[in-house]
Amino acid sequence: MSKIAVDEVAVSKMAVSKAVMSKVAVDKVADRKTTEREANVHRSSASPLANVSQILPFSCVDGPGSRLVIFLQGCNYSCKNCHNPHTITPCDHCGDCIPACPQAALTLDSSGVKPRIVWDSQRCNQCDACLSACSKQSNPKTQQYSVGQLLAQIRINLPFINGITVSGGEASLQLPFVIALFKAIKASPQLSHLSCMLDTNGSLNHTGWHKLLPYLDGAMVDLKAWQQETHNYITGRDNHRVFQSLTLLAQHNKLYEVRLLHIPGISDFDHEIAALSHYLNQLPESVRIKLNAFHHHGVTGEAAHWPNCHEADIQQLATQLSQRGVKHLVLPSVYL
Amino acid sequence: MTLLNTLASIVSDPHLSPKQKSNYLALEAEASLPYVAVSDAVTAAMQAGIICDMFEGHAPFKPRYVLPDYAKFLRQGSAHLELAAATDLDEAINALIILYHHVPSVTNMPVYLGQLDELLMPYVDGVDEQTLYRKLKNVWIMLDRTLPDAFVHVNIGPSDNIVCRTLLKIDAELKQVVPNLTFMYDPATTPDDLLLMAASNICECNKPHIANYPLHASAFDAKGFGIVSCYNALPLAGGANTLVRINLKQVASQASSIDAFFEHTLPTYCALAYELIEARAKFLHQESHFFDSFLVKEGLIEPSRFAPMFGIYGMAEAVDILLGNAPISEQMSDKPSKHYGHHDGANQLGYRISKALDAIVKSTPVTYGYNDRALLHSQSGISLDVDVTPGVRIPYGTEPNPVAHIQALAPHHQYYTSGISDILTIDATVKQNPEAMLQLCKGAFNLGFREFSANVASNDLIRVTGYMIKLSDIAAFKQQGSRTNTTGLGAEAAQNTGILKRQPRVAALELTPSYSE
Ligand code: SF4
Ligand code: SF4
Hints:
The complex is a heterodimer. Chain A has helices at 2-18, 23-30, 34-41, 129-133, 147-156, 175-187, 206-212, 228-235, 240-251, 273-281, 311-323, and strands at 49-59, 67-72, 106-109, 116-119, 143-146, 163-167, 195-200, 218-223, 255-262, 288-293, 329-330. Chain A is of the alpha/beta class. Chain A has a nine-stranded mixed sheet with strand order 5-1-2-6-7-8-9-10-11. In chain A, strands 3-4 form a two-stranded antiparallel sheet. Chain A is globular, with a radius of gyration of 20 Å. Mean pLDDT of chain A is 85; it is low at 1-47. Chain B is an alpha/beta fold. Chain B has helices spanning 3-11, 18-31, 40-47, 70-76, 89-100, 116-120, 129-146, 162-174, 192-205, 213-219, 248-254, 258-287, 294-297, 315-322, 344-363, 402-413, 434-446, 471-482, 487-497, and strands at residues 51-52, 65-67, 112-115, 153-156, 180-185, 209-212, 225-228, 232-235, 238-247, 306-313, 365-370, 375-378, 423-425, 451-455, 461-464, 467-470. In chain B, α12 (258-287) packs parallel to α15 and α15 packs parallel to α16. Chain B is globular, with a radius of gyration of 23 Å. The N and C termini of chain B lie close together (11 Å). Mean pLDDT of chain B is 87; it is low at 463-468 and 481-504. At the A-B interface, α1, β1 and β2 of A face α16, α17, β15, β16 and α18 of B. The structure holds iron/sulfur cluster (2 copies). Residues 100-101, 103, 105-106, 119, 124-130, 141 of chain A line the site of one iron/sulfur cluster. Chain B: This is Glycine radical enzyme, YjjI family protein. Chain B: It comes from Shewanella algidipiscicola.
């Protein structure tokens, strides 16, 4: 119980200190190649453990109803606008962050084949100095969870939730684990009523989706930009896969929500409004079109100089979309 | 200040309405009478702020809360008020409004307006939906404008009916402070879509509070109960004759050890609280002639259904003091801590204290009580409380996430028969997802919560992708960024000229029980 409490506030603190996180540390990684990271990510390996950066016991923005959200560490995009850059890379246990910890909460366990960083949650005061010290956009406080451990966590919160959502990072990078978790939920008479949702950047391939679909109730997919170049500029990747994923999920009635992050002057939804509206209109009517407003919180690097998205910007985009027949628009409840 | 000076400053106070002035003048007059006779030990404990009479006055001449049997009144009319039994909706509404003005309470406002849907349902046959909506909306506006006190309380539910749904609709539309609203939820009779309507209303306007109907009903007899004022559950056709509360923080700081607290300190101060309860209830029942009222003669209230409320507050501080924890602050709340609300050991000590209080209250007879007993109450504070947390709540600003919050407090709820209010702060993102609110409410009741109150609007914490941030942090930042220009001047002017000091039209009289300039 107190662990959960700590987890959540831990992150709230993280958010605050990230804002002042050293720009230098982040710039150092900016030119790191995406492929280099992916080598660390093991999308295909059947790992029995999940690399979890955080568990939120109660969320109302990650799918229908009240949800427990599991955030997995590791992402294959390098979005300039990332609000959580320390979730991008799995920790490589280099130990560079150890001296930065004022509480001596970090140690290196060298007893195994490879050294491992060990985080003592009791000593940690969530100052996040370790995050600033890490030059690899990682976090020594991520934890390994087995399916059984997560099920136990879910059971504690059972009366309060309608389902669970696996988010990230990019959740689909730990696909075998996600499948194992969803499968276990669906197999348990006590838990099978919980809906299982995935929050994703849409980069998973067809084979991956087909493995997941039998256990998946729905997905929330980010569409970060309409044009290839814009998508590339923002995320470092092209968006072919995203469109393929959207089509496939829509065909199988598993597309719950498409998320458009509006960055005035940077994202291209307003310029491509006709094509975008046309595309959204062919998705099933039940699909929620969620408009998100870009803000600076936690953002580092060049995106910190991008303009904030205000309520008026979102309203304008929403008006343009609804004038072109786009329904089921969901607007932010709060602007920062 | 001498009495005359105080009276003079009340009558010439620029911020009070004539009615507010009359109220404060009356309070000062009563306060100039000798206090009901109590021992020196009680007086000393009161002066030390360990037990407190909630500023109910020196010579109680009206009960703290009164819950008339409005249904009986509508059925039989009133000889005293020269009213015949109501025969249609207009007459029923008219009669209720008349009676509201004859129901006293500690604040002189009627804190209980009845189980309004149940009361009006017998009169809505043949009234079309639109007419009903229009009439009830007028009632709602009238209540807010004529009984401007945040503690004036209406009950609805648990059954599904047109009055209940219409009132929920109106309440969300008008977003008024008055009346306060409790929706009774009974899983056996309340359909999910009605509970969802209530949950959506909370997202709109932080109302209604949702009461765990079966749990409350089982604590009272067949005649029933009502939720009044600030989430107090009391017998219908009765009420509370007085409320005396114990400051557990102070009690804990008098105790030399945890054992001494349970064996000696707590029982001692409880005994003093009982002495005060007896003295105040005796004056009310024996000297004041309140129970000669037509409310008693016409059977709308019964003296035997009035109970003293045995209130406690400062549980969080008491536990932390007994465990030797330094006071918790907002800055510390995001760290692992051994504090109340955050640590299982601390929470367990809290439950033990509640259990001990329950045992004392259930075994101590009183002269004027419900089944000869007082009712335990987790008291939600008044504006004069500084550095002490209401009831058994987790200190404001240090609350964990809503689920952990409910889990930490649920085991207390079984003990507090006459009410316990824990306000859950839910971030504003819930506004687009009332199903989440509904599920949270069900989860809370599943764990034994008596009353579910959620606060959305004033919520400072907000989810951003994977984490929570505080809107005030952002605001502070934005302010720092704008220090150099002139935006600060407006706020400064407001502060210095007191233009914001005007008393609001709608007050919360129980929170500010005495006059202060
Ligand atoms: S968090 Fe970063 S610095 Fe620390 S061990 Fe992991 S990769 Fe190295
Ligand atoms: S947040 Fe990181 S640096 Fe700070 S105490 Fe915890 S482990 Fe150490």
